[in-house]
Write a structure and sequence with these properties.
This protein has 279 residues and is α+β, with helices and mostly antiparallel strands. The protein is 62% helix and 13% strand. The chain crosses the membrane at residues 7-24, 44-61.
C-alpha cells in the first residue's frame, strides 16, 4: 500500500463507516435502538475504528516515513562521500601530474642547484600524494553497525575523533563548528591539516597530551590544535625537509586560511582560521 493510499484511507474510512452506521441505524435498527442510545454508540464506533484499523494505518504511515527519511539520509551521505572522493581524486591527480612534469625536467636539468630544487619538489609531491592516499582511505572507508548497514551520517567531528584515536597521545576534542559550515573541499583540507598536526605532536613534540578546539560558523571559524610538548621552533618552517609543515602551509594558502604556530602558556599552538574572505 502506497503512502498516498494510506493517507486517503485515513481520511475517508471513518467518514464511510459512520455514514454506513447511520444509514443502517435509521433504516433497520430504529425499532431496536433508541435515538439517544444510537447517538452514544456512534462515537464509540468511531473510537473502535480508530484504535483498530486507523491505528494500523498510522503505523504503516510512520513506517513509510521512516523508510523515506532513511533513504534520503543514505542518498545525502552517498552524495557527500562522492563529492569528497572527487575532491581527493582531483588532489591526487594534480599531484601526480606535477610529479610527472618534474621527473621529465630532471632528465634535462644540468644545473646542480636546479636539479636539487627539482628533486626536493619531487620528494615533496610524493610525500603529498602519500598523504592524499592515506586520507582517502581514512575518510572514504564505510563504517558498519551490527547489522552491516551503512552508518547514515558520519560528521566532520566524527572524522576528527578517528584521527585523534590513531595516535597514542590522549587528545581532547571540543568541536563547535556546525557540520554545514564547511563545504566538501574545506572538510578535506581541514582534515588533512589536522591529521598532519596530530602526527607531528606524536612524532616530534614529545607531548603527553593534546587538544583540538574548533568554533565558528560558515563565514568565520577557527580550529586550534595544542600540545604540551617541547615547543615549536620557527626555523622549522624554512627547512626543506619539513614536508608536512610546508604542505600544511600550502594548503592554508590555497584555501586562503590563516595559519599561525606559536608557543604560549607552556603549550604549542597551531591555529587555522577562516575569515569572511576565505574559500
Amino acid at each position: 500500500m502506497t503512502y498516498k493510499q494510506i493517507k486517503w484511507m485515513i481520511l475517508f474510512v471513518p467518514t464511510l463507516i459512520v455514514g454506513l452506521w447511520e444509514y443502517v441505524r435509521h433504516q433497520f435498527l430504529m425499532p431496536y435502538i433508541s435515538m439517544d442510545l444510537g447517538n452514544w454508540l456512534t462515537p464509540v464506533l468511531v473510537y473502535l475504528v480508530s484504535v483498530t484499523l486507523l491505528n494500523q494505518l498510522f503505523s504503516l504511515l510512520e513506517k513509510i516515513q521512516q523508510e523515506l527519511q532513511t533513504e534520503r539520509a543514505q542518498k545525502a551521505a552517498l552524495e557527500a562521500r562522492e563529492q569528497l572522493a572527487k575532491e581527493l581524486h582531483d588532489g591526487i591527480a594534480q599531484s601526480l601530474f606535477l610529479l610527472s612534469v618534474k621527473v621529465d625536467q630532471l632528465e634535462f636539468t644540468a644545473d646542480t642547484k636546479k636539479h636539487e630544487e627539482a628533486v626536493y619538489t619531487v620528494r615533496k609531491t610524493v610525500h603529498e600524494v602519500n598523504r592524499y592516499v592515506r586520507q582517502a582511505i581514512a575518510n572514504l572507508r564505510y563504517s558498519t553497525n551490527t547489522k552491516s548497514e551503512v552508518v547514515l551520517k558520519e560528521t566532520l567531528e566524527d572524522k576528527v575523533k578517528i584521527i585523534a584515536d590513531e595516535v597514542l597521545i590522549p587528545i581532547e576534542i571540543d568541536w563547535n563548528i556546525p557540520e554545514e559550515a564547511m563545504n566538501p573541499r574545506e572538510k578535506v583540507e581541514i582534515l588533512a591539516c589536522i591529521r598532519e598536526a596530530v602526527v607531528n605532536i606524536q612524532k616530534h613534540a614529545r607531548a603527553t597530551k593534546g587538544w583540538i578546539l574548533a568554533q565558528g560558523d560558515e563565514s568565520d571559524w577557527k580550529v586550534t590544535i595544542q600540545d604540551n610538548g617541547e615547543g615549536f621552533r620557527e626555523e622549522l618552517m624554512d627547512l626543506k625537509d619539513s614536508y608536512g609543515l610546508n604542505i600544511m602551509k600550502d594548503r592554508a594558502d590555497d584555501m586562503r586560511w590563516q595559519l599561525r604556530i606559536s608557543n604560549q602558556n607552556e603549550r604549542t599552538t597551531l591555529e587555522l582560521q577562516k575569515t569572511g574572505g576565505g574559500a
